[in-house]
């Protein structure tokens, strides 16, 4: 190949690349941006990351801007103050906000997780664990008023353990510091999400002995929600969002845990693939990932029962007023 032909080829490749880049930019311009505020970055939210990485949102003409806003109160503040269009957070936060009589109600429209996502981790290995072993122990729980703590107390009471009197309950440690506190020697038992629970087990810092998700039953643990005004003005957009999510929910259960782990690994660069895989497998095995976006009345009422049992329910709110099932029903019936 002579120099002239080489130069021509290089020029052709450059032009094609430029055209491709321009086309991509033009395509992105036609996508509608949706700002999502997630309460934490968690393997528990795997279907959301699958929807992003597999391009399901883009297929619906949506450009997702995902921001992690630690803490349910901060996530809801972002939503209420127009810092986000959609929030991914525990459904209990919508109850706290709506019970205060907000003029622009918070509407839950698509469920992401349908069980608690925490596991009971013991400091020492236990071959034949029974819940009564927690009597007299020091239990490192979660933040008061949050779903992990309320579900934790619900499960303890289910097994005839009074969390206030039968053990030493520690719940004044920030969510981000719970795992490090246990690792440094605080508590006999701790309530942890994946992949931290599996990492602790692999490193010999703790041992998974039980699942709060299996014990508590179905509950709308993490839900996509938005303001009523946004839903009214952007109903078609929310439908597209829910359709993309449903595709991802189906994809997660149709593929192996390792395949799911490989897809979402860009969101968890510091977590080894085998840990991601085992974490996803645990959640799939107990059906923690919702199989569809529908938040039904039974789950909503069970959530309020758990909140009431914990003494954290401001008032009972009617499912029909604060949960939109029309969109999820339409999508799943297509």
TrEMBL record:
One of its GO terms (cellular component) is periplasmic space. It is found in: Periplasm. It holds the Pfam family NMT1. The keyword Signal applies. Keywords: Signal. It comes from the Bacteria. InterPro entries: SsuA/THI5. Gene3D superfamilies: Periplasmic binding protein-like II. Residues 46-257 form the SsuA/THI5-like domain. Belongs to the bacterial solute-binding protein SsuA/TauA family. PANTHER family: ALIPHATIC SULFONATES-BINDING PROTEIN-RELATED, TAURINE-BINDING PERIPLASMIC PROTEIN. This is Putative binding protein YtlA. It comes from Caldibacillus thermoamylovorans. The lineage of its organism: Bacteria, Bacillati, Bacillota, Bacilli, Bacillales. The gene is ytlA.
């Amino acid at each position: 190949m002579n120099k002239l032909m080489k130069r021509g080829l290089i020029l052709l490749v450059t032009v094609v690349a430029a055209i491709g880049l321009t086309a991509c930019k033009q395509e992105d311009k036609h996508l509608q941006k949706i700002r999502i505020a997630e309460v934490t970055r968690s393997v528990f939210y795997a279907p959301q990351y699958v929807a992003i990485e597999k391009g399901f949102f883009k297929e619906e003409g949506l450009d997702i801007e995902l921001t992690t806003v630690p803490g349910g109160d901060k996530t809801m503040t972002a939503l209420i103050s127009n810092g986000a269009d959609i929030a991914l957070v525990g459904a209990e936060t919508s109850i706290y906000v709506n019970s205060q009589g907000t003029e622009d109600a918070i509407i839950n429209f698509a469920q992401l997780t349908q069980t608690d996502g925490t596991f009971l981790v013991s400091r020492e290995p236990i071959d034949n664990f029974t819940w009564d072993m927690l009597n007299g122990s020091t239990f490192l729980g979660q933040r008061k008023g949050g779903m992990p703590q309320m579900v934790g107390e619900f499960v303890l009471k289910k097994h005839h353990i009074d969390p206030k009197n039968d053990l030493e309950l520690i719940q004044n440690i920030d969510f981000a510091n719970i795992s490090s506190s246990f690792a440094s020697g605080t508590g006999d038992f701790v309530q942890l999400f994946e992949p931290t629970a599996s990492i602790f087990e692999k490193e010999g810092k703790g041992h998974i002995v039980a699942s709060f998700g299996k014990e508590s039953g179905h509950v709308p643990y993490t839900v996509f929600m938005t303001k009523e005004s946004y839903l009214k003005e952007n109903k078609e957009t929310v439908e597209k969002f829910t359709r993309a999510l449903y595709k991802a929910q189906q994809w997660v259960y149709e593929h192996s845990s390792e395949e799911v782990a490989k897809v979402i690994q860009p969101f968890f660069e510091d977590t080894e693939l085998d840990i991601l895989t085992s974490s996803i497998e645990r959640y799939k095995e107990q059906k923690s990932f919702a199989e569809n976006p529908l938040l039904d009345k039974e789950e909503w009422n069970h959530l309020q029962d758990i909140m009431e049992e914990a003494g954290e329910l401001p008032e009972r709110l009617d499912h029909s007023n604060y949960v939109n099932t029309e969109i999820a029903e339409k999508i799943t019936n297509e």
